[in-house]
Amino acid sequence: MNKSIFWRFLFIGIAVVAAVVFFLPNTPLFKSMPEWWQKNMPNKGIVLGLDLQGGLHLVYEVEADKAVETTVNGYADAIKAMLLKKKLQGEVKKNGLHIEVAPASQEIIKALKEGYNNLDLSESGQMVTLTLNEKERTFIKDNAANQALETIRNRIDQFGVAEPTIHRQGQNEIVVQLPGVKDPQRARDLIGRTALLEFKIVNDESPIASQLPSSITPGDEEKILSQFADKVPADSQILFEKKLNKETGAVTKFPILVKKEALLTGALLSEAKVTLDTQFSTPHVSISFNPEGAKRFEEVTGENVKKRLAIILDNTVYSAPVIQEKIGGGSAQITGSYGMEEAKDLSIVLKAGALPAPLKMLQNVTVGPSLGSDSIEAGKMAGLAGTIAVAIFMIIYYRLSGVIADFALILNIVLLFGAMASFNATLSLPGIAGIILAIGMAVDSNVLMFERMRDELRTGKTPRSAVDSGYKKAFWTIFDSHITTLITAAVLFQFGTGPIKGFALTLGLGVTINLYTALIGTKSVFDLINSRREVKTLSI
User: 330 near 209, Cβ under 8 Å?
Assistant: First the structure.
């Protein structure tokens, strides 16, 4: 064997070994491998898509108008703070998506124009009205959809779903596909949670606080809110703390009067993790603030010693401990009556951040595997039977050369699945179609070369010369057809989504590998045969 052929076969051998190693996690053999192998070698393999293993298909609408409303509220609060800082007497009210400031004095108008030149300002009598312009509203809505998409992606990544599909659809819709999810309800709760964390002072000084019932049964919240609607101070609101009796499973709610103003929010968090209570081994979530948040937390606790600080997530009070002293270091704990799983989900949503606007679920489909495990097995048998039929036909029609073509076909399949496993690709029905198309092109390539070799033999050339001429003449035809298909696959992968990307990936990998196996793999075998002895006839 000359050096050229040796190196080509060595490269083929290395590629086959690498493909087997990458594909091993998809075989039952992987579970029997030593622990060090499972930890240090590729251990993910190919992931089955939503249509093959089932899962969750969700479509959400981002309620972007809420994001605009929240922005207007933020502007109103900021204007109040600005007037207070400049010692200007003025009343600020929010009217829908407008902010009304009175009186329309020259000092106030000047301050508003200097500080909020991105808002449209109009005067009417003794009132100044500030409005978000259309360009600003469009930007806020688009930004809310992008932020929601990123927040959902972060939550799903930390939840641990392999190969999720998350993308925008239209202006305000987000499509989420989670293959293989075992607990759909938990996934839905995790995605749809707004996760707005706030720290507010409990208003125990108001007479209303002592008039609230000590506890209520779940479902009576609206009744309590209606009963005290006219009595609650303008700067306060009633929220509810939920407690679960772990022995009986009974849920009790406790109304709490808190100040409306949030002294601190989850936007300043740097870390959230689940820890266990050392005495009772109950889970709670430990949070840490960034330097700005830590400084603010220290100020808040220092200014409100002996008062209760309510820790609120999505308008539900988790705990309201009494501040005993100023707390430095920027760390706190969210305790409550929840289990380990809920604590983990809570830490995930806090780390991923709050949604910029609520999500409205438009579609909620639990997808079963369309093929099913039995059908997948039937599909494997059909694929195997088809491959064997093609292999037998190639041997009958091209004899020994057909055996070489079958070697290339098997090599193509092994390398293709190994390459897909190395990318941890998702295999779906469109992906299978891409594989079948690529294998078909592999057979066509061999047929094309063998027919050129037959033509050369008919002209009286020796087998070695016929092989060289056949490959040389068929090369550019095969190369051109594969490159154009590869370009198509690249375009589909770049601009397609979900299943189309899966089809493009398998087709692109298959075509690339086929170029190698058809032009180098089979040629190496012919060269090996011709190098060992003087071949007088070619079995083709």
Answer: no
